[in-house]
Amino acid sequence: MKKIAFKTLGCRLNQFETDSIVSQFHHGDYEIVDFSEVADVYVVNTCTVTKQGDSRSRQAVNFANRKNPDSLMVVTGCMVNNHMDNSQNLQDVTYFVKNEQKSSIFHIVESHLGGEMIIPSDLKPDTFNYSPADKTMHTRSMIKIQDGCDNFCTFCIVPKVRGRAVSRPPHDIMENIRKVLDFGFKEIILTGVNIGRYDSQDWNFEKLLESIVEISGDFRVRISSIEPDGYGDRFIELLQHPKVTPHLHLCLQSGSDRILLQMKRMYTSSEYRNIIDKIKREIPDFNFTTDIMVGFPGETEKDFQQTVSMVEEIGFSHVHTFKYSIRNGTRAARMEDQIRGNVKSDRSEIIRKLAEENKLTYRRTFIGKDQRVLIEKINRKGIAKGYGQHYIPVEFPANSYSRNDFAEVQIKEINRGKEPVLVGVV
Amino acid sequence: MNLRDHKIYRIQEIRELTESAFILRFDRHGLNFMAGQHILIGLEGSSELREYSVYSGEKDDFLEILVKEVETGMVSKQLKKLKVGDPVQVESAVGFFRINKEDIDKKLLFIASGTGIAPFHSFIKSYPGINHTLLHGIRYSHEAYESESYEDFRYISCVSKDQKGVFKGRVTDYLKQNRIEENTLVYLCGNSDMILECKDLLEEQGISNESIYTEVYF
User: Domain residue spans in chain A?
Assistant: First the structure.
């Protein structure tokens, strides 16, 4: 039996795609092993959204090559789309597979091991040809509803590597969801590059979400990263549905209107605040997390302070802070007044510290309240770990509960480790 | 498939407007767009493409863009050298700077600086009869690109460096001296300083953020 190992860099979309590919190999004659182990086949699903993404992707390929120089090495994902020429410089890669042929990796590997070399670019491109994964490492099942982006933010390479926005037909999405619910998943995560702009067969994102929550069964729906534009008040109403979890990763990027305009974001800081206020009016303990980019070209201290103020004011429970890095082919790469690396690092550190304080403050508010936790694992000491509906980690004595059960947990305290975890009892 | 497809188009006509500004007209090849959207364009086979708002109307059987040669630019210089019959590479239209169907009968104020007039030219050609006013901020009156194509009373050139404009001064000066009617939808296209200053002034006049649409040019 051949051993195969996977490494996924970057976004949830990549994770979804890897999960689906892993599932195909599960059903084949393969043993899935950890990426740190010696394997016969390695698949690295790369990221190129930042310079760091490129770097980590290359490190993963080089690591696998050192582990087993004779392995069959498949490199796929956005770095391949972005740097097809440069990525060819990577040593000992058997196949470079672009995003649009990624769903054919099982076929490529099977053919190779059977003695047939396939040229990936000759295969028919397909963005949505991913089977629902029944065996993944997670208790949550990601559902790809959309790919690509038409926003053309000036810093972003995604339109180049993921292409123009395209939405998966609603019927396929509903079928996929029913299938993963049949597999036993109790939480689904709607995933895409710009899901708020979902648009297929006259269905927008609200209509899709409305139909998803009408599916019967005990499950919940999590909306992953979403842009603060492209949807209306109906979306806010739907967030109050019992099946929709009270958490959004609502990308802000900057608190400065000047920078938002230069980034070509589709909103102003006040429009962003309005969305937050509307949601908080209905669901006061709603969990907001976000992305912040520091060091965008021309970002002054004043611009940065506006971002800091907004992070303080909104109290995001988690901030994914990016240091802006030049992505060739984007408008921002040609902008003057690029910010020095040390300034970016300092600003990133300020946001990181602030975000940590916010996280602890927010999570403390749950002491004495209940969380409906989906159990992801139970350790040897009988402690169940999982996430509540607000997407906060919770631990509690498992008692008679099993993995993938929902448990109503009363939160008693907070464990102040590197990652503050709520501790409770059922 | 959602890949960024591109096609080769042939230049049909070039209209020189000033020493540096010109209009390129090329085949349409059935390319769909909504007024206000932009296309990416560059030389055939080049990986250097730039965004240009479509200047022509939705129903025209050709595509036009308004280009200003930028001293430090790359693609605008290449486009400037093109001749009729030359090929260009064009990617399909994208963008959300559009007039929503439900807003088409409302009072509209278009504010442009320089070549930012391009999407408004497309709006006006695509939707004849819309109730609009067009403010065009330019330095010199000869930069009033094809101003004769607009109805006189709807086109207001705001000229900052000579005395021949309909209004003498910048578009921001115009806004300081003229009250914008309530319930007007405002569309701003041009450089970011102009957009931010206009937004502040409009806000002071009670025009809400939700009534303002922007497209930044660099």
Answer: 2-122, 140-364, 370-425
